[in-house]
Structures are given as C-alpha cells and as structure tokens.
Amino acid sequence: MESCNCQQQWGTFSRIWHVYDAKWQDPYLTAELLKKYLSGTYKPIYHPMNDCGDNVVVINSKDIALRGDDWQKRMYFHHTGYAKGATYTLAWELHSKDPTMIVRKALYSAMDKNLNRRYAMQRLHIFPDSEVPKEIKRNISNQIQQISTIPVRLDHIPEDVRAEFPQLLKYPEEYVRR
User: Fold this and answer.
1) Residue 2 has pLDDT above 70, yes or no
2) What whole-number distance in Å separates Cα of residue 78 and Cα of residue 40?
3) Backbone dihedral region for residue 35 (phi beyond 0: left; psi -120 to 50: alpha; all else: beta)
4) Which helix (DSSP H) or strand (DSSP E) does residue 127 occupy?
5) Which of 12, 22, 66, 133 has its CA 20 to 30 A from that of 91?
6) What's the first-to-final CA gap in the chain, in angstroms?
7) Is residue 1's pLDDT more than 80?
8) β-bridge pairing 124-126 and 142-143
9) Does the predicted TM-score (pTM) go above 0.90?
C-alpha cells in the first residue's frame, strides 16, 4: 500500500509536457490560456510560493494572428540598459526578426509579477514551425486545445464538395461582376 502512495505523490508533483499549436491564434488570448499551465494554477497542490508549473511547447509561432491593424500599430519596448537605450519596435518588424518573440513577450506580460515568473519562462519552449527536436518531442504527453478554430481555405476544399454545396443565387450567363 505504501508503494501506491509513493506513486500517487510522484504523479501529483510531476511536471507534464504540453504542446500547443499557435497557428492563426491570438498571442494575447493564448498567453492567458498557457499561463495556468506554466504556473500550475490548475493543479490541486498550487500555492503562489510553490513552483509546480508544467513545461509548455508552442509550435507554429510564425503563423500567429494579431487583431485588426495591430501588425502596423502595436509597439514593443526594449531597453539595452545603457543611457538612452530605449527602443520601440513595430509588431511586424519584431515578428520578421524573430517569429517567437511576440508569443514570448505576451506570455511574459500575462504572468503578472509572479515571483516564479523567471522559472516558468524557462519551461516555455517556442518553435517557429512544427519541427520539434526529438528530445523534447518524446516528453510531450498532452495537447492543449486551441482557442479559436482554424477555418478551411476555399482552395483546399475538393471540387466535388464545393459543387454539392447549395447555391443561394444563380447568376445569368451574361452577368458581369465589376
């Protein structure tokens, strides 16, 4: 009976590896979702002074989707530490330099000023595409569901399925669209 209790305790305190596909997802809504896995707030043993968070692997970070005109208007701050070292970078420019940085900055700001934020960020692994190293891939045991569903593009739907879809309007042959 005692060995069963040890296994139960090991299972309670173990760190789980989660994978999340960030394709076409808002990084700020994603950050709110992933925050609870990195800090471990969903676990029954959670305490703010306890470091019980899990590892999270984020794939396809180069395909994130910002709302509206955030690509042209959202600014990211960076300071070098030297005098007059403050710089502001637009979202599209930062994303073209490093496709993982917007997701990383969104999660860092979503973690609030938690004492364990530094250690939680060390358990975050972000990849710009779906290629993950074998050492990390073999540890993954859970998949986090995406916030919004990815729509199917019209050119990816087979022609026979598109032909069966009911038409609301039948345009005449001489109709010219301008």
Assistant:
1) no
2) 28
3) alpha
4) none
5) 133
6) 78
7) no
8) unpaired
9) no
